[in-house]
Amino acid sequence: MEVKRVYTLAGIKHRYKLSDFAYGEWLIYKGDFPVYYFNIFDTDYSAFKDATKVNADKILMDKLEKHGLRLKQNLFGISSTKSHQQRFDLEKLPASYLR
Q1: β-pairing verdict for 33-39 and 91-92
Q2: Would the N or C end of the chain have less CB density within 10 A of its end CB?
Q3: CA distance 71 to 81
Q4: pLDDT given for residue 29 in this prediction
């Protein structure tokens, strides 16, 4: 996962992002930190994949909002030009969140 510093009015924060080649994969955020990982091609989510053939990210956002989770960080500031790779062990998003 790519980590980049963001200089905000409240101090230095970090922006977490998957690579651009991570098709069908999302980080799920609580506040400004990633807490879950979601891969739509995982067999645990096959029912969700079949039900959302058109706009999976919109439907996913609506379902996550009920649990206080988001697909994007809300960081406003000036991003550093440098980034580094960091490994995180995130849990898979519980399938019950998608019901």
Answers
A1: parallel
A2: C
A3: 23
A4: 92
